[in-house]
Amino acid sequence: MEIWNMLDNWLDAVPIRGEAVESVAMVTALLLARALLLNVHFKRHPDFSIESKRRFLVVSRNVTLLLVLFGLAAIWAAQIQTLALSMFAVAAAVVVATKELIMCLSGSILRSATKQYSVGDYIEVNGLRGRVVDINLLNTLMMQVGPNPLVGQLSGKTLSFPNSLLLNHSVRRDNILGDYVIHTAEIPVPIHLDSDEIVCRLKAVLEPMCTPYVPAIQRHLENVQAEKLFITPAARPRVTRVPHDDKVYHIIVRFASPVSKRLEIQQAVMDEFLRVQYRLLNPRPQQAAHKEL
């Protein structure tokens, strides 16, 4: 008790307000606690992947920031109340001026509450596609996927969008099923090309590449359906035809695969389609003569 009394007397004697000293001490303690927690956690789990470490760093940083904000609000509560009462007329103007900031914070709260995505997920928001690498209270950073919608590989560029987009736009997440993904590719085809021949060739490439994974994926989908009560799609690959207009029709290729294999399978299907399309658009002279007969 004597030590605390001496400390209070010292704070009263110092020209610096006690709240400022308490704020500095609180922020320092939280930063030291975070550093210590990260050090101990990573030493206890040396086999963590880079994605897991990155996810833990992001979560710990955001939690620390929230604790700092709440702590500062609690320390300066009396001063904030006095300031709020004296500046009530300015409050409305501040809200208008910080509208975008408030929307970003609201979007961040929405993402956390609904668990829309986390670090490492493949998402698309308002036409922006990529793999999430960082999330904070104001924006989300991701590595770009594309630029073509049929290309799912990382382009090497980063994309950043404000979390306010989450309030007005839907979020598409590819890897909702964990290590597996249900992937769909839509291929426009000239209307005069024979769809039977194209679909037959695409199935001949797609099914042998997907069949080895079907049993494991089917078991995984059944577990997901039982645990999360999701209605899961079929694991078997499918190739379907959809009319579009008088110039093209669409071939829809849908298959289930491990996340790491979907680009390889999709590219094999696309390569086969281009080969078949070339043969159909450029028939050999013998085939043309045979058709004339």
From TrEMBL:
Pfam families (UniProt xref): MS_channel_2nd
InterPro entries registered for this protein in UniProt: LSM_dom_sf, MscS_beta-dom_sf, MscS_channel_2nd
Entry keyword set: Membrane, Transmembrane, Transmembrane helix
Broad class of the protein's primary localization: membrane
GO molecular function: mechanosensitive monoatomic ion channel activity
Subcellular location: Membrane
Domain Mechanosensitive ion channel MscS: 105-142
Regions crossing the membrane: 20-37, 58-77
One term under GO cellular component: membrane
Protein name (Swiss-Prot/TrEMBL): Mechanosensitive ion channel family protein
Species of the source: Neisseria cinerea
